[in-house]
């Protein structure tokens, strides 16, 4: 299953539309479920909801073979903990998707992980999805790359500034 999440603060129609269009054109039988936030776009080719409870969100992350998201720290940390393959397309200020381009910096700092794939635009997202699915390039365990102590330190930092 592919799980798409745009976070809970802002809609990210560009990402939602890109995944919906991919589902329409790909012919893939892989189910896609998206958490789309308060979006003006309503997908036609994937299952979705606007918001999720924390338990439903965690369950979707755990069930997913592949996660597609904006470059939000919560999703990145969760994917690293679970060893999930994560395609990240950052929100861009030039598209009025956020107030600045901090997600580009986040992506740059996490793109060295083998299970995190940086996506620059909608075309690259579709191409990468096709490649990931054809190669079945999913990661299930990153213990050799991600120290549990590092994950805990990042969580503690986030909890102190949140």
Task: Show the helix and strand layout.
Elements: E1 2-5, H1 13-26, E2 32-35, E3 47-49, H2 54-63, E4 66-69, H3 73-82, E5 85-88, H4 102-110, E6 116-118, H5 122-135, H6 148-161
Helix pairs in contact: 1-5
Descriptive key words:
Rossmann fold; 162 residues; 44% helix; 6 strands; 6-stranded parallel β-sheet; alpha/beta
Describe this structure in words.
This protein has 162 residues and is α/β, with parallel strands linked by helices. It has a single domain (2-161), classed as Rossmann fold, CATH 3.40.50. The chain is built from six helices and six strands; from the N terminus they run βαββαβαβαβαα. It has helices spanning 13-26, 54-63, 73-82, 102-110, 122-135, 148-161, and strands at residues 2-5, 32-35, 47-49, 66-69, 85-88, 116-118. The chain has a six-stranded parallel β-sheet, sandwiched between helices. The protein is globular.
Summarize the structure.
Helices cover 44% and strands 14% of the residues.
Arithmetic mean of pLDDT: 81
Strand order of the largest sheet: 3-2-1-4-5-6
What is the SS-derived class?
alpha/beta
Strand content: 5-15%
Shape: globular
Order of helices and strands: EHEEHEHEHEHH
The proportion of residues forming helix, as a percent range, comes to 40-55%
List the uncertain runs. 139-144
User: Whole-Å distance between the termini?
Assistant: 31 Å
Instruction: Using the coordinates shown, work out and report the CATH topology.
Output: Rossmann fold
What's the tally of helices?
A: 6
What gyration radius follows from the Cα positions, in whole Å? 15 Å
Largest sheet: 6 strands, parallel
Name of the CATH superfamily: Glycogen Phosphorylase B
Strand tally: 6
**CATH hierarchy: architecture:** 3-Layer(aba) Sandwich
């Amino acid at each position: 299953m592919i799980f798409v999440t745009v976070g809970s603060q802002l809609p990210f129609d560009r990402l939602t539309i890109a995944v919906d269009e991919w589902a329409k054109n790909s012919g893939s039988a892989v189910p896609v479920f998206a958490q789309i936030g308060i979006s003006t776009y309503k997908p036609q080719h994937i299952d979705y909801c606007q918001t999720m409870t924390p338990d439903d969100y965690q369950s979707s992350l755990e069930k997913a073979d592949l996660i597609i998201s904006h470059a939000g720290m919560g999703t990145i940390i969760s994917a690293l903990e679970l060893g999930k393959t994560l395609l990240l397309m950052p929100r861009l200020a030039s598209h009025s998707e956020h107030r600045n381009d901090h997600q580009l910096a986040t992506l740059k700092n996490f793109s060295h992980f083998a299970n995190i794939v940086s996506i620059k635009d909608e075309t690259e997202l579709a191409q990468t999805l096709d490649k990931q699915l054809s190669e079945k390039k999913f990661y299930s365990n990153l213990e050799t790359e991600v120290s549990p102590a590092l994950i805990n330190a990042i969580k503690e930092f986030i909890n102190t500034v949140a």
